[in-house]
Amino acid sequence: MSSKLKEQLAELDRQIEAMRAAGNRAGEAAAHAQKALLYALSMDLQAAAQEIAKAGVLAEEEGEVEALARAHLGRGKALLNRPGQRKEARDALSKAAALYHTLEDPSGEAEALKELANLDIAAGDFQGAMEHINKAIAVLEEGGADEPERTIELYQMRSSCHLLLGDLDAALADLDTALDLAQQSEDSALALQIRVQQYTLQSLLAGGTSSEQLAALLQEAQQAGNLQATADIRLQQAAKSFWAGQYRQALEQAQAARQAAREADDLTKFMRYLSASLLMAEAQERLEDRPGVLATLLTCKVYLETHLGPEVGRAMSMVLDALEQRWGREGLAEAVRIYQQRAQEQGPYQV
Questions:
Q1: What rounded mean pLDDT belongs to the chain?
Q2: Is residue 207 pLDDT above 50, yes or no?
């Protein structure tokens, strides 16, 4: 924890004591909510959830509906990526959505519904996610909320759900709408990101995007400092090289895509990391580097388990278990032996 953060938390503690002494419970609740935000920004989600719970109790005692809605929303967000507490996250977010609806606050209600959609996506319930997204879009439109960024994000999320359900045409239609909104709001970085997503889907429908188009997009993304778009384009380049039989080049491009995914801060970075890792492993197998395949899959397993929980790790274990069927018991044992020898000589593989 940085010294600046410690100072901010100490100042909030002083404010809480002063509010408590003055009997200002609403102010005390607001200070606890601010502490929760600071903890969440520093990724101390347990402390954030505790502060949000305190703010919620105080707000409820005072009948402060808006403060209570903020507390439930904050608690739900803090618990969102903790696999063992997703039920608690859903309860908190549902309460927040209902309270914001009572307050006739379309922005707050849409935010809570969006996070409920994220919970659905994490559980593999893409149809349920689309229902929450549809409701959030309707809430913003009917409430007259002028929030283009949030609306664009919702259309992007719905596009991803359509894609995961196998409806490429619907996925592209939502990206078209998102791009129109981004261009209307003159957000060039967001428009670039959406264009890259469009190229990705169009390549699935039409059999590929030209290398020249990908190179031009990559240069534009790098100049804009857009890590998400950079990762997407590098992954497409790697796939194109792989199917062209250029396995060494595909491996290098997939490694770059995986690194770009790690450095991104959006919610889909883990899917990109997984995709890049699997493409790396395929290229390494074509290059007859079985120990490299093991290293890539094991580091992917560790990375995803660390950030998403043991469920994902178990899925990666199934991928690793399938190697024996492909290589045979002796082939796998030899690959493990060389992998362990490399790890001793070169140190642990980096995730």
A1: 78
A2: no
